[in-house]
Amino acid sequence: MESERRSMLSLSGFLFPHLWTSAHWFLLFVCLWTLVSGSSYKQGDPVILYVNKVGPYHNPQETYHYYRLPVCRPKEVRHKSLSLGEVLDGDRMAESLYDIRFRENVEKKSLCELKLTEAEVEELKEAIEELYYFEFVLDEIPIWGFVGYMEESGFLPHSHKVGLWTHLDFNIEYNNNHIIFANVSVRDMKPVSLDDVPGGTLSVTHTYTVHWFESPLTVERRGERLRDFSFFPKTLEIHWLSIINSLVLVVLLLGFVVIILMRVLKNDFARYNIEEEAADDLDQADNGWKIIHTDVFRFPMCKSLLCSVIGVGSQFLTLATVCLDENCTCPDGYLAPSQLLLCSSIQLAFAVSDKQAGIIVMALLGMFNVHRHGAINSAAILLYALTCCVAGYVSSNFYKKIGGDRWVWNIILTTLLFSAPFFLTWSVVNTVHWLSGSTQALPVSTVLLLLAVWVLVGFPLTVIGGIFGKNSAGSFDAPCRTRNIARQIPSQPWYKHSIVHMTIGGFLPFSAISVELYYIFATVWGREQYTLYGILLVVFAILLSVGACISIALTYFQLSGEDYRWWWRSIFSTGSTGAFIFLYSVFYYFRRSNMSGVVQSVEFFGYSLLTAYVFSLMLGTVSFFSSLKFIRYIYINLKMD
Fold first, then answer.
1. pTM confidence score
2. Which residue positions does the secretion signal occupy (predicted)?
3. Is residue 467 within 8 Å of 399, Cβ to Cβ?
4. What are phi and psi of 149, to 5 degrees?
């Protein structure tokens, strides 16, 4: 049996790093190949222009199919085959009537003639007044433009003009046999007025022009051209003040924990570790964290739930920054990602920033380029499914260590801890999109595919990870014996209550990332393109470091008050950062954005709440393992009978 256990442990230590390496190299190959292998054309070859979606400018997640508007469309609409990431991003590409041929200019060619009814005119007016924009796709290059023109001027008399753009000027850049860049312009064109339409009907003729320009950029560098020119405003810059502020906060916290706390511990050790002849005198006035050494490792209530929290938290930490180094060791049966969580705060920051990584470092490698529609969505789903084994392993391993015997229920709880809230949130959001006819509503086939990924990959890997974790778990090996009768906890001052610790433990990590949060929100819920992934990685490491420091400090203060119930307190103290993130999202919605409407509001608050929940799991996990490592350290170095 012992040889079987060792072989399974060695198999798990071999399997997981190689599984991660293979998966990420496969993703890297596929994404980079798609990026640089743009279609090759010969002069005169047809270039298909796909129409995609339209929607209000200030509501990025409220999008509709382009052909929902009364525009020129073919008799038979043929849709492009889309990837999973593109579907999740709300793309619904369909072939258009535009006849574009490689390196052949076109001068004001008629696209179609439309006779708009009164209802169709009102529909277009409403869309233009809500600042509807459209998105076309040409050789994987997105092209944006506004549907029409609106002008508000004067107070008395008030002027309100609405016009429809009926002519589009396409400017396409090429290099050899490849398309480098494309955009659309309505400069020097006059819109067709939609005000006071006589008879309620309006006849319009849609036309277009195509101009080709040679570019010095090669196809491998065409992403640079799109980054330099964008339809949406670009205001994000490298914000050094935010980084300096966060770094100063980290230095101060590290100084507090390493210098002040260690000096206090040194005095405690000197006072507690006395010679035997002075022990009787100490017993008369024994207080502080030494006196609870027989209770500090008393296992908490709801052990299965606690283990599920740290298991899922470890999974999301792995999803964000994954250790792929084949030389990562697994001491004491721990998987490498959770090994990182047991390090001190300084080691944690360097470990996260030094290793090869998941989503963030994949972005640093340029895998999520603007030409690759939905790449980050596809990568996140694949990585989430593959990292389910981490959640099962960490949860089951620690559950067995602290004496849990219902490991099957523990695996089920670990599986449902994130997937159940996510499914509930997605169901509400998707229903709202479906009722409004938005392209963000997922088709039945995509829902079944995602369900199959979870059932056939995510859940089995959670079970497999749980089996490995249970079989490789040793004893908890507490430095102190736990007595049968729990010690009575003295009344605590107000500043040592849970709500105070949660406020302090949540606010300080939040303050370290508050400035960066604006840029992230402006990217996810706005029109910005986030390319500062290096800074994002640094801020993420800062967040983990601050969370670990605060957790250690708050745990020490709690133990000094002879309160040994640190298990759940350590998770909630720093995990409360998620509550501050959600409060910031509410502030951003009402004070920093122009979002409105039921569709956009439901999506924003639903997924913001889910994001805050994920942050709570991640930071709660970091906080728990940091506190556990700290408590082991101080009680191992305490001399006891």
1. 0.79
2. 1-38
3. no
4. -130, 135
